[in-house]
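Incident log, structure service

09:12 report received: a user says their structure output differs between two submissions of the same chain.
09:20 pulled the input from the user's history:
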Amino acid sequence: MIDLSVVIPLYNEEESLPELCDWISRVTTSHGFSYEILLINDGSTDDSWKVIEGICSQNKAIKAVKFNRNYGKSAALDTGFKLANGQVIITMDADMQDSPDEIPELYRMIAEDGLDMVSGWKKKRHDPITKTVPSRFFNATTRMISGIKLHDFNCGLKAYKSDVVKNIKVYGEMHRYIPVIAKWHGFTKIGEKVVEHRKRKYGTTKFGIERFIYGFLDLLSITFVSKFKRRPMHFFGLLGTLSFFFGLLSASWLIWKKLEAIYILKVPVTREVVDQPLFFLALVAIIVGVQLFMAGFIGELLVINKAEKEEYLIIESIGLS
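09:34 re-ran on a clean worker, output below:
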Protein backbone atom coordinates (compact mmCIF):
# COMPACT_ATOMS: atom_id res chain seq x y z
CA MET A 1 0.00 0.00 0.00
CA ILE A 2 1.29 3.44 -0.90
CA ASP A 3 1.54 6.30 1.58
CA LEU A 4 -0.89 8.74 0.08
CA SER A 5 -3.85 9.05 -2.27
CA VAL A 6 -5.01 12.50 -3.33
CA VAL A 7 -8.63 12.40 -4.57
CA ILE A 8 -9.71 15.38 -6.68
CA PRO A 9 -13.31 15.65 -7.92
CA LEU A 10 -13.59 18.06 -10.82
CA TYR A 11 -16.11 19.62 -13.17
CA ASN A 12 -14.96 21.93 -15.97
CA GLU A 13 -11.55 22.76 -14.52
CA GLU A 14 -9.36 22.39 -17.63
CA GLU A 15 -7.24 25.46 -16.86
CA SER A 16 -6.20 24.58 -13.33
CA LEU A 17 -5.45 20.85 -13.67
CA PRO A 18 -1.86 20.93 -15.05
CA GLU A 19 -0.66 23.44 -12.47
CA LEU A 20 -2.47 21.68 -9.60
CA CYS A 21 -1.15 18.20 -10.43
CA ASP A 22 2.38 19.51 -10.87
CA TRP A 23 2.19 21.27 -7.50
CA ILE A 24 0.92 18.15 -5.73
CA SER A 25 3.67 16.03 -7.34
CA ARG A 26 6.38 18.46 -6.23
CA VAL A 27 5.15 18.53 -2.63
CA THR A 28 4.69 14.77 -2.26
CA THR A 29 7.99 13.94 -3.96
CA SER A 30 9.96 16.44 -1.89
CA HIS A 31 8.66 14.79 1.30
CA GLY A 32 9.41 11.28 0.09
CA PHE A 33 5.81 10.07 -0.10
CA SER A 34 4.76 7.24 -2.37
CA TYR A 35 1.57 8.64 -3.84
CA GLU A 36 -1.17 8.60 -6.43
CA ILE A 37 -3.44 11.34 -7.69
CA LEU A 38 -6.99 10.30 -8.58
CA LEU A 39 -8.79 12.74 -10.85
CA ILE A 40 -12.55 12.10 -10.89
CA ASN A 41 -14.00 13.86 -13.93
CA ASP A 42 -17.63 14.41 -13.01
CA GLY A 43 -19.04 14.72 -16.52
CA SER A 44 -17.14 17.88 -17.53
CA THR A 45 -18.36 19.56 -20.71
CA ASP A 46 -15.12 21.43 -21.45
CA ASP A 47 -11.74 19.96 -22.46
CA SER A 48 -10.92 18.69 -18.96
CA TRP A 49 -10.63 15.07 -20.12
CA LYS A 50 -8.21 15.94 -22.95
CA VAL A 51 -6.08 17.80 -20.43
CA ILE A 52 -6.24 14.82 -18.06
CA GLU A 53 -5.11 12.44 -20.80
CA GLY A 54 -2.07 14.60 -21.41
CA ILE A 55 -1.24 14.84 -17.70
CA CYS A 56 -1.58 11.08 -17.16
CA SER A 57 0.70 10.30 -20.09
CA GLN A 58 3.47 12.31 -18.42
CA ASN A 59 3.06 11.00 -14.85
CA LYS A 60 2.01 7.41 -14.17
CA ALA A 61 1.17 8.29 -10.56
CA ILE A 62 -1.80 10.27 -11.88
CA LYS A 63 -4.92 8.19 -12.58
CA ALA A 64 -8.34 9.26 -13.72
CA VAL A 65 -11.92 8.19 -14.32
CA LYS A 66 -14.61 9.89 -16.34
CA PHE A 67 -18.33 9.80 -15.61
CA ASN A 68 -20.81 9.74 -18.47
CA ARG A 69 -22.62 12.72 -16.93
CA ASN A 70 -22.52 15.06 -13.95
CA TYR A 71 -23.46 13.05 -10.87
CA GLY A 72 -22.27 15.57 -8.27
CA LYS A 73 -19.37 15.92 -5.86
CA SER A 74 -20.58 13.18 -3.51
CA ALA A 75 -20.57 10.59 -6.29
CA ALA A 76 -17.10 11.67 -7.39
CA LEU A 77 -15.72 11.42 -3.87
CA ASP A 78 -17.37 8.07 -3.24
CA THR A 79 -15.82 6.66 -6.42
CA GLY A 80 -12.43 8.10 -5.53
CA PHE A 81 -12.62 6.53 -2.07
CA LYS A 82 -13.31 3.12 -3.59
CA LEU A 83 -10.34 3.39 -5.94
CA ALA A 84 -7.83 4.88 -3.48
CA ASN A 85 -4.90 2.68 -2.44
CA GLY A 86 -3.19 4.98 0.03
CA GLN A 87 -2.86 4.56 3.78
CA VAL A 88 -3.95 8.19 4.03
CA ILE A 89 -6.47 9.72 1.65
CA ILE A 90 -6.56 13.47 1.09
CA THR A 91 -9.33 15.25 -0.79
CA MET A 92 -9.10 18.70 -2.31
CA ASP A 93 -10.98 20.78 -4.86
CA ALA A 94 -9.63 21.25 -8.37
CA ASP A 95 -10.02 25.04 -8.44
CA MET A 96 -6.66 25.63 -6.69
CA GLN A 97 -8.25 27.41 -3.75
CA ASP A 98 -6.85 24.55 -1.62
CA SER A 99 -3.07 24.58 -1.22
CA PRO A 100 -1.15 21.29 -1.74
CA ASP A 101 1.44 22.64 0.70
CA GLU A 102 -0.97 21.56 3.46
CA ILE A 103 -0.60 17.88 2.49
CA PRO A 104 2.45 16.93 4.64
CA GLU A 105 0.95 18.21 7.89
CA LEU A 106 -2.43 16.64 7.14
CA TYR A 107 -0.66 13.35 6.48
CA ARG A 108 1.28 13.62 9.74
CA MET A 109 -1.87 14.25 11.79
CA ILE A 110 -3.37 11.00 10.46
CA ALA A 111 -0.24 8.81 10.36
CA GLU A 112 1.44 10.00 13.58
CA ASP A 113 -1.25 11.60 15.74
CA GLY A 114 -3.63 8.70 15.14
CA LEU A 115 -6.65 10.74 14.06
CA ASP A 116 -9.34 9.11 11.93
CA MET A 117 -9.86 12.24 9.88
CA VAL A 118 -8.78 15.87 9.76
CA SER A 119 -10.98 18.63 8.34
CA GLY A 120 -9.54 21.84 6.99
CA TRP A 121 -10.70 25.17 8.37
CA LYS A 122 -10.58 28.13 6.00
CA LYS A 123 -10.26 30.63 8.83
CA LYS A 124 -9.47 33.50 6.47
CA ARG A 125 -11.68 33.25 3.41
CA HIS A 126 -11.54 35.03 0.07
CA ASP A 127 -15.26 34.86 -0.56
CA PRO A 128 -18.02 37.50 -0.74
CA ILE A 129 -20.22 38.13 2.28
CA THR A 130 -23.08 36.35 0.51
CA LYS A 131 -21.12 33.12 1.02
CA THR A 132 -19.35 33.72 4.33
CA VAL A 133 -22.40 34.70 6.41
CA PRO A 134 -24.61 31.77 5.32
CA SER A 135 -21.59 29.49 5.76
CA ARG A 136 -21.13 30.54 9.38
CA PHE A 137 -24.80 29.90 10.12
CA PHE A 138 -24.63 26.57 8.33
CA ASN A 139 -21.56 25.45 10.29
CA ALA A 140 -23.01 26.60 13.62
CA THR A 141 -26.20 24.64 12.97
CA THR A 142 -24.24 21.54 11.97
CA ARG A 143 -22.10 21.74 15.11
CA MET A 144 -25.20 22.00 17.29
CA ILE A 145 -27.03 19.08 15.68
CA SER A 146 -24.06 16.74 15.15
CA GLY A 147 -22.09 17.49 18.29
CA ILE A 148 -18.86 17.65 16.23
CA LYS A 149 -16.78 20.71 17.07
CA LEU A 150 -15.60 21.75 13.61
CA HIS A 151 -15.58 25.28 12.22
CA ASP A 152 -15.81 24.40 8.52
CA PHE A 153 -17.68 21.23 7.60
CA ASN A 154 -17.79 22.08 3.89
CA CYS A 155 -14.06 22.59 3.37
CA GLY A 156 -12.95 20.36 0.50
CA LEU A 157 -9.46 19.88 1.95
CA LYS A 158 -9.65 16.89 4.29
CA ALA A 159 -7.52 13.90 5.25
CA TYR A 160 -8.72 10.42 6.17
CA LYS A 161 -7.38 7.17 7.45
CA SER A 162 -7.95 4.49 4.81
CA ASP A 163 -10.32 2.55 7.09
CA VAL A 164 -12.66 5.54 7.21
CA VAL A 165 -13.22 5.99 3.48
CA LYS A 166 -13.48 2.25 2.89
CA ASN A 167 -16.32 1.92 5.39
CA ILE A 168 -18.57 4.86 4.60
CA LYS A 169 -20.95 5.57 1.73
CA VAL A 170 -21.21 9.13 0.39
CA TYR A 171 -24.32 9.75 -1.68
CA GLY A 172 -26.71 12.49 -2.79
CA GLU A 173 -25.20 15.77 -1.59
CA MET A 174 -23.80 14.36 1.63
CA HIS A 175 -20.16 15.30 0.93
CA ARG A 176 -20.69 18.26 3.29
CA TYR A 177 -21.36 15.83 6.13
CA ILE A 178 -18.60 13.27 5.79
CA PRO A 179 -17.46 14.07 9.38
CA VAL A 180 -21.02 13.31 10.56
CA ILE A 181 -21.17 10.10 8.52
CA ALA A 182 -17.76 9.05 9.86
CA LYS A 183 -18.81 9.71 13.44
CA TRP A 184 -21.95 7.59 13.10
CA HIS A 185 -19.75 4.77 11.76
CA GLY A 186 -17.64 4.86 14.91
CA PHE A 187 -14.74 7.00 13.67
CA THR A 188 -14.79 9.63 16.40
CA LYS A 189 -11.18 10.87 16.37
CA ILE A 190 -11.88 13.92 14.23
CA GLY A 191 -9.41 16.79 14.18
CA GLU A 192 -9.19 20.18 12.52
CA LYS A 193 -6.42 22.19 10.91
CA VAL A 194 -6.39 25.82 9.83
CA VAL A 195 -5.60 25.83 6.10
CA GLU A 196 -4.88 28.49 3.52
CA HIS A 197 -7.81 29.56 1.38
CA ARG A 198 -6.49 30.97 -1.88
CA LYS A 199 -8.28 33.24 -4.31
CA ARG A 200 -9.71 31.45 -7.31
CA LYS A 201 -7.22 31.69 -10.17
CA TYR A 202 -9.18 30.01 -12.96
CA GLY A 203 -12.82 29.53 -13.86
CA THR A 204 -15.89 30.32 -11.80
CA THR A 205 -17.59 28.74 -8.81
CA LYS A 206 -19.98 25.85 -9.54
CA PHE A 207 -22.12 26.41 -6.44
CA GLY A 208 -24.73 29.03 -5.61
CA ILE A 209 -26.34 30.19 -2.38
CA GLU A 210 -29.02 27.50 -2.75
CA ARG A 211 -26.46 24.95 -1.57
CA PHE A 212 -26.95 26.21 1.99
CA ILE A 213 -30.69 25.57 1.81
CA TYR A 214 -30.13 22.11 0.40
CA GLY A 215 -27.34 21.63 2.90
CA PHE A 216 -29.64 22.22 5.87
CA LEU A 217 -32.15 19.71 4.49
CA ASP A 218 -29.32 17.24 3.92
CA LEU A 219 -28.23 17.70 7.54
CA LEU A 220 -31.68 16.78 8.81
CA SER A 221 -31.68 13.82 6.45
CA ILE A 222 -28.26 12.47 7.46
CA THR A 223 -29.05 12.94 11.15
CA PHE A 224 -32.30 11.00 10.81
CA VAL A 225 -30.81 8.30 8.59
CA SER A 226 -27.75 7.85 10.79
CA LYS A 227 -29.86 7.33 13.90
CA PHE A 228 -32.76 5.35 12.52
CA LYS A 229 -31.72 3.68 9.24
CA ARG A 230 -31.33 0.32 10.98
CA ARG A 231 -34.30 0.74 13.28
CA PRO A 232 -37.00 2.83 11.57
CA MET A 233 -39.64 1.27 13.82
CA HIS A 234 -38.04 3.06 16.78
CA PHE A 235 -38.94 6.39 15.21
CA PHE A 236 -42.15 5.78 13.29
CA GLY A 237 -43.41 3.16 15.72
CA LEU A 238 -42.97 5.47 18.71
CA LEU A 239 -44.74 8.40 17.04
CA GLY A 240 -47.46 6.09 15.72
CA THR A 241 -48.06 4.53 19.11
CA LEU A 242 -48.28 7.90 20.85
CA SER A 243 -50.67 9.26 18.21
CA PHE A 244 -52.84 6.13 18.28
CA PHE A 245 -53.22 6.08 22.04
CA PHE A 246 -53.87 9.83 22.18
CA GLY A 247 -56.72 9.38 19.72
CA LEU A 248 -58.02 6.26 21.44
CA LEU A 249 -58.02 7.83 24.90
CA SER A 250 -59.65 11.04 23.61
CA ALA A 251 -62.43 9.13 21.85
CA SER A 252 -62.94 6.88 24.89
CA TRP A 253 -63.19 9.92 27.18
CA LEU A 254 -65.83 11.54 24.94
CA ILE A 255 -67.87 8.35 24.83
CA TRP A 256 -67.60 7.94 28.60
CA LYS A 257 -68.78 11.52 29.21
CA LYS A 258 -71.75 10.88 26.92
CA LEU A 259 -72.71 7.67 28.76
CA GLU A 260 -72.18 9.34 32.14
CA ALA A 261 -74.50 12.20 31.21
CA ILE A 262 -77.25 9.86 30.01
CA TYR A 263 -77.20 7.02 32.55
CA ILE A 264 -75.64 8.51 35.70
CA LEU A 265 -76.37 12.24 35.71
CA LYS A 266 -79.69 11.74 33.85
CA VAL A 267 -79.17 14.87 31.74
CA PRO A 268 -82.18 15.09 29.38
CA VAL A 269 -80.34 16.73 26.46
CA THR A 270 -76.65 16.15 25.77
CA ARG A 271 -74.31 17.18 22.98
CA GLU A 272 -73.72 14.46 20.43
CA VAL A 273 -70.21 12.95 20.46
CA VAL A 274 -69.83 13.52 16.71
CA ASP A 275 -70.63 17.22 17.15
CA GLN A 276 -67.48 17.81 19.16
CA PRO A 277 -64.20 18.84 17.39
CA LEU A 278 -62.17 16.68 19.77
CA PHE A 279 -63.87 13.58 18.38
CA PHE A 280 -62.60 14.27 14.85
CA LEU A 281 -59.17 15.14 16.19
CA ALA A 282 -59.16 11.80 17.97
CA LEU A 283 -60.11 9.96 14.76
CA VAL A 284 -57.34 11.70 12.84
CA ALA A 285 -54.84 10.82 15.57
CA ILE A 286 -55.86 7.15 15.42
CA ILE A 287 -55.56 7.04 11.62
CA VAL A 288 -52.21 8.85 11.62
CA GLY A 289 -50.96 6.56 14.36
CA VAL A 290 -51.78 3.47 12.33
CA GLN A 291 -50.13 4.96 9.23
CA LEU A 292 -46.95 5.87 11.10
CA PHE A 293 -46.77 2.41 12.63
CA MET A 294 -47.16 0.83 9.17
CA ALA A 295 -44.47 3.16 7.80
CA GLY A 296 -42.11 1.89 10.49
CA PHE A 297 -43.02 -1.70 9.68
CA ILE A 298 -42.39 -1.18 5.96
CA GLY A 299 -39.13 0.57 6.80
CA GLU A 300 -38.04 -2.48 8.78
CA LEU A 301 -38.76 -4.67 5.76
CA LEU A 302 -36.70 -2.38 3.54
CA VAL A 303 -33.80 -2.52 5.97
CA ILE A 304 -33.92 -6.30 5.97
CA ASN A 305 -34.11 -6.41 2.16
CA LYS A 306 -31.57 -3.73 1.24
CA ALA A 307 -32.12 -1.95 -2.01
CA GLU A 308 -29.32 -2.21 -4.53
CA LYS A 309 -26.72 0.50 -4.16
CA GLU A 310 -26.55 3.18 -6.80
CA GLU A 311 -23.71 2.69 -9.27
CA TYR A 312 -22.05 5.43 -11.27
CA LEU A 313 -21.31 4.74 -14.92
CA ILE A 314 -17.63 5.23 -15.70
CA ILE A 315 -17.08 5.38 -19.45
CA GLU A 316 -13.30 5.82 -19.48
CA SER A 317 -10.38 5.39 -17.13
CA ILE A 318 -6.62 5.86 -17.16
CA GLY A 319 -4.09 3.90 -15.11
CA LEU A 320 -6.69 1.76 -13.38
CA SER A 321 -7.15 -1.97 -13.88
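09:41 both user submissions now match this output. Likely a transient worker issue. Closing.
09:42 reviewer note: The mean pLDDT is 84. The first helix runs from residue 17 to 30.
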